[in-house]
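<instruction>
Derive structure tokens from the sequence
<data>
Labelled lines for chain and fold
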Amino acid sequence: MHRKILVVEDNEQNRILMRQLLKYHGYDVLEAADGAAGLKMAGEDMPDLILLDLQMPVMGGFAVIQKMRETPALRALKVIAVTSFAMKGDREKALAAGFDEYVTKPIDTRKFIQLVKKFLPLEDAALKKPLILCVDDQPANLKLLENILVPRGYAVVSAVNGEEALEKLKTRTMDLVLMDLMMPGMDGLQVSRKIKSDKQCGNIPIVILTAYTGVETYIKSLSDEVFGYLHKPFDAEELVKLVQAALEQPKAP
């Protein structure tokens, strides 16, 4: 079971940043855009941790924490205050009000995740979401893959061409690559060959997604490079089954 974090923040860009960071590190994320909505979600969903902005419309962070600490069902929930108006003594004020910790914005991404993991450690490998690199030159296709995979428990990183995909493979450990065949610059199979020739990422399974009708003969001759392929447009469940099969295959020594 994944750890669940509620982000209560009225600034959309801040919510997006925290959501992406938390999901990448294996957490499930709930979101509310004001304090009143956040308080309601806390009671309904009982998250493992709440990240609560202090300055918000409808109901501010201090009013929310006061209400939570007065409510028996919510009193034990862990809550971190998040604010961009940090002054001397504010941390002490937040802790005295009932917050468990205090973070200033703009957040330091590394320290932020370290703090979250202090409250919600992810020691169990089963909690780590498989990380899938999706490569397609069409943003709509990348969004579709994200919409299919993320709700099913996968983490997604996107690239719009082969060059970007290879760069991201240098900096992140991926569990699977889903790649369009026909792309400008390097096509999917050219990228696949480069991946398989690399000692660091040669074991990563690759699945080709394509609308090209003559793909069967093309890919069968390159079976060492790719795990399989799927025609576009594809059924979501068909894609998920292929992803699962690719992730479950034994890794070469």
Summary: The chain has two domains: 4-119, 128-248. The radius of gyration is 22 Å.
